[in-house]
Amino acid sequence: MRISILAFCIATLFISPAHAAEKTKPASKKPVEKSVSATVYVAGDIADCRKRPPVESMAARTAELIASGLDKDSTARAITLGDNTYPVGKPEEFSNCYEPTWGRFKEKTLPSPGNHDYGMPKALGYYNYFGELAGPDRRGYYATRLGKWYILSLNSNLDQAQMQEQLKWLKDELDSNKQSCTLAFWHHPVYSSGGHGNNKNMQEAWTMLAAAKADIVLAAHDHDYERFAPLDANGDRDDKNGIRSFVVGTGGAKLTPMFLPKGATELRDNSTHGVLKLTLHAKSYEWEFLPVPGQALVDKGQAACH
Questions:
Q1: What strands, in cross-sheet order, belong to the sheet with 265-269?
Q2: Burial of 239 by CB count in 10 Å (0-12 exposed, 13-18 middle, 19+ buried)?
Q3: pLDDT digits 0-9 by tens, 109-134
Q4: Coil/strand/helix, residue 190
Q5: Residue 30 CB: number of other CB atoms within 10 A?
Q6: pLDDT tens digits for 223-247?
Q7: Residue 131: which H helix or E strand, with range?
């Protein structure tokens, strides 16, 4: 009897019941790579307090659209497309009109200068106000990154010698760019059906951007909203490799008349103030025009990067 009991005990040391089987480690899972997106709110021709105090100005209403978006997403940014103040970019225009409106999110702003900003010698009001945000050496152009996008802020107000320096800088930047998506912005549009029409001052920059297969170019100057089909270096439609451009001169200044639409015009309006919201994904983007309350322009869409 003792032998049988001993044999049973020894056997149990080597036989494991099924429910006590050794647990295997779960297969390791690779971390899921989250898509990095960035949001920007865009407009130019902004702060004009000549007839109304800042709180009652249209710039205050467009600023509210941006502030609301920034409250929901602290990583979002605002982009200005020049003519930040009226009439001539004096320091007091920035402190008394821009600051109470779009100045609410100054530190989250990527600015660019317009011709009204250069109403003062060397655009001193603009550069004094924005400081380092306006780029180095008061030249008015700089590069940055948002999410997976390469962002280029250019200056369309330069003289010939300064423009050549900017173009050399732009070429170097584009040659060294490793990002898959590119956005550039400045004040004077190369293509527009607004009152000022096409402006060739930035044609060389457009040509360089087209060669680099940039995705988006933003401008203002004409006080309206216009979206163009993708265009190549010569301004011909190229849905595969062309640049999609927007004129967004709806930031607050009085809206102005338009001429006949261009062949590549896809949508335009000169009755609505608002801002363009761009959501920049890793390999694509979405656009949506946000009108101020009481106005109703609708424009939204999406496209892939080149």
A1: 142-146, 149-153, 181-185, 216-219, 244-248, 225-228, 265-269
A2: exposed
A3: 999 999 999 999 999 999 999 999 99
A4: coil
A5: 5
A6: 999 999 999 999 999 999 999 999 9
A7: none
